[in-house]
Amino acid sequence: MFTGIKAFFKGIERKSDDGYEVLTGGALPTAAGVSVSPEAAMRCSVSFACIKVIAETIEQLTPHLYRRKGDDRERATDHPLSALVTKAANDWTPASEFRLVLGTHFATHGNAYAFVNRDAAGRVVELIPLDPRTVSVRQDPRTMAPVYMVATGNPALPAREYDRSEILHIRGVGLDVHKGASPVTLGREAIGLSLTLEHHCGSLFGNGAKPSGMLKVKGRLTEDQFRRVRSMFSNFYQGVTGKRTMILSEDMDFQQVQLNSVDAQTLEMRRFQVEEVSRFWRVPLHLVNEMDRATHANAESMGQQFLTFCMLPILRLWCDAMAITLLTPEERETLYFEFLVDDLARADIAARFTAMSSAISAGILNPNEARAMENRPPYAGGETFMRPVNTAPAPTTERTHA
């Protein structure tokens, strides 16, 4: 008895945000009867789609390092950090893969960590992703700054301690001062119900998609007769190949006692869970292939909402975290990071060219600036700003009073 209790509590590591004990692998129990961990959430089609769309969106957007020059700015391509965030985070990880890994960790665990490797002069030379399951955060009682404990992976070696200058930490929403909450943990009930419904449908169709029932036999059956009737019934009725006609004797009667999947509205429940799970990541339904409410008229608007309300807050966290960890206080006076999101914000080509034409005609952009936005080379004379010839500043006249 005591051995079983010790085995049950062996995996307990820490308290979760809502008071539940975190068991082995971070799996938490749900009312649906399944334990939901980050690995289990990746097997749920909806949560996996939400995690994937956020991680891959971060992957395809490139952060650039900019330098302020008065009222203007320029890309600081001469700074060593520019190559780390745009080309390769280290010798074996391309910058896009680095963003994909950390984006997946952020969308799954609510936190993303990377080790900041510096040379003898204190310059950043490498960014190495860390498994968020091996990182814990505590607060220094003296400085109030976060201190990171990273497990070594070897049980014989203690965890190593790092200060905030050595760890790039992108923190999500959560009540903890120094650590974000996992969307998987917060949405475990919705994810657990979705997994349960999926398992129910799989079991239903695995048994021939037929409802269970009750076989009534008149009289009392011996044990051998009971086993023979049950074997005969199972051979004809259960399994995906159970489509043969079953013949019952005159003393047998079959009565259905369970509703089928249509009557139980299982399909409607699964559709509702798509909406329920997507709320925890604030991902529009059309991005998880739920197209019931998507039309040609609102698809572009929903894409803009995804950028504005889902991705831009995340990208701001990335920019600020990289600035405060990778740049010195003096560099932050003139340097800053910014993601290029023009590709996500683009409309169709006709509407885009019409808007650029209007901006050039009004003198907001010059032709070369518009061409640069389309990744096209400049041409001679294209740096001239245009102004409509039929407009001019309004003359100032004094108002006369009678």
Structural account:
This protein is an alpha+beta fold and 402 residues long. The protein folds into three domains: 9-211 and 260-346, no CATH class; 212-257; 351-392, no CATH class. It contains 13 helices and 15 strands. It has helices spanning 2-9, 38-42, 45-60, 80-86, 95-109, 183-186, 188-206, 223-237, 266-279, 299-326, 342-345, 349-361, 367-373, and strands spanning 28-29, 35-36, 63-69, 72-75, 88-90, 93-94, 111-118, 124-130, 135-139, 146-150, 160-162, 167-171, 213-217, 252-256, 335-339. β3 (63-69) and β4 (72-75) form a beta hairpin. α3 (45-60) packs antiparallel against α5 (95-109). The longest helix has 28 residues, at 299-326. The protein starts with a helix and ends in a 29-residue tail after the last helix. This is Phage portal protein.
Write out key terms for the chains shown.
Portal_HK97, 3 domains, 402 residues, single chain
Global shape: flat
Query: What is the arithmetic mean of pLDDT?
Result: 81
What is the total number of structural domains? 3
- Number of DSSP strand runs: 15
Q: What fraction, in percent, of the residue positions are helical?
A: 25-40%
Strand order of the largest sheet: 4-3-15
Major sheet = 3 strands, antiparallel
Number of helices: 13
The helix/strand order is HEEHHEEHEEHEEEEEEHHEHEHHEHHH
- Uncertain segments of ≥5 residues (pLDDT<50)? 1-25
State which percent range the strand residues make up: 15-25%
Structural class: alpha+beta
- Terminal CA distance reads 104 Å
Spatial extent as radius of gyration? 30 Å
